[in-house]
Amino acid sequence: MKNSESKAIVITLPFKAICVDDKNRPAEIPITNWLVEGQPYTIINARQLPNGETGFIVEEIPLGEETFPYFYLSSSRFGIPMTDKEYQEYLKQSEPESLCQEEPVLL
């Protein structure tokens, strides 16, 4: 695989993801309707937003007119768990030499 190529993981909706960032809650969203770091959530829709980021609609967090202008949660707030087998398959897509381009340095 060339360095300019990227790997993609295809995920079918809905899927489970774990919140990895619950910081910086907008004031328009009540704390009772906010994410909790470490908790699983069900992603029911995903969309590329005009700013280039991917936004998620989460089944457990109702966003709408009450939370305007917030209708999506940033995908960067979530981690997608993989089974050991899925992770091993993902790693097989990488060439070993692409993991470290420079001579390792001990710290």
- Helix/strand-derived class? mainly beta
Widest sheet: strand ordering: 4-3-2-1-5
User: What's the helix-strand series?
Assistant: EEEEEH
Distance between the termini: 30 Å
Multimeric state: single chain
Number of helices: 1
Mean pLDDT: 81
Describe the structure.
The protein is built from 1 helix and 5 strands. The chain has a domain of 69 residues. The protein has a 5-stranded antiparallel β-sheet, with no helix packed on it. The chain is mainly beta and 107 residues long. A hairpin with a 5-residue loop joins β2 and β3.
List keywords for this structure.
5-stranded antiparallel beta sheet; 1 helix; single chain; mainly beta; 5 strands
How does the SSE layout of this entry go?
Layout: E1 15-19, E2 40-48, E3 54-58, E4 73-74, E5 78-79, H1 84-92
Antiparallel strand pairs: 1-2, 1-5, 2-3, 3-4
Task: Give me a quick take on this structure.
By secondary structure, this protein is mainly beta. The protein is built from one helix and five strands, in the order E-E-E-E-E-H. A five-stranded antiparallel β-sheet has the order 4-3-2-1-5, with no helix packed on it.
